[in-house]
Write a structure and sequence with these properties.
By secondary structure, the protein is α/β, with parallel strands linked by helices. Helices cover about 40% and strands about 15% of the residues. It has a single domain (about 5-185), classed as Rossmann fold, CATH 3.40.50. The protein is built from 9 helices and 6 strands; from the N terminus they run βαααβαβαααβαββα. It has a 6-stranded mixed sheet. β2 (about 50), α4 and β3 (about 70) form a beta-alpha-beta unit. α5 (about 90-95) crosses α6 and α7 (about 115-130) crosses α8 (about 145-155). The chain is globular. Residues about 190-195 have low confidence and may be disordered. This is Histidine phosphatase family protein. It comes from Duganella levis. It holds the Pfam family His_Phos_1.
Amino acid sequence: MPLRIFLISHAATAAMRSGRFPADDALDQRGMEATQTWRSRVAAMPATTAFRSAASCVGDTARLLNVEATIAPALNETDYGRWAGQRLADIAATEPDALATWLSDPQAAPHGGASFEAMARRVGAWLDDLPDTPATIIALTHASVARAAIIHALGAPLAAHSRIEIAPLTMVELRRSARGWHWIANVPEWMENAT
């Protein structure tokens, strides 16, 4: 049996819905209700261990899913520097060139925080350092971390990060075998029920 890891992105926060860069936001009532709909699905998973980001919204997610998870700094959100908490529309108006560079260049960090490349290296190293034993792991995290994990599993170029969409409360499954990491495309529950 291979090592399986399920990366789960947290529910949307009020800041996300208003188009702001993350700034350690907690889940609001709407995000909490969305998360609770996942509780039975996550409870049925045969996980041997769980990890999470240190962010408040991810801590809320773990609590609402009744998952005892160890904080793993590698699962933390990208450091957005001075853009943290700012509206994307405001950054587009005041720093259009910096925003365009950041969106197109995974090595750029014009906001004074971390680049996508730096975060992707951190996530890839964490994945590769997981014990090489059969296990099922839950990792509660952020959409950007799930994107980085997919890119690492596929050996895809970092520039692909802008082409991978991870919605709130998305589950990404990766498996590691003797052949390396693989991204497993899960059939959404609503499609299973439609057939």
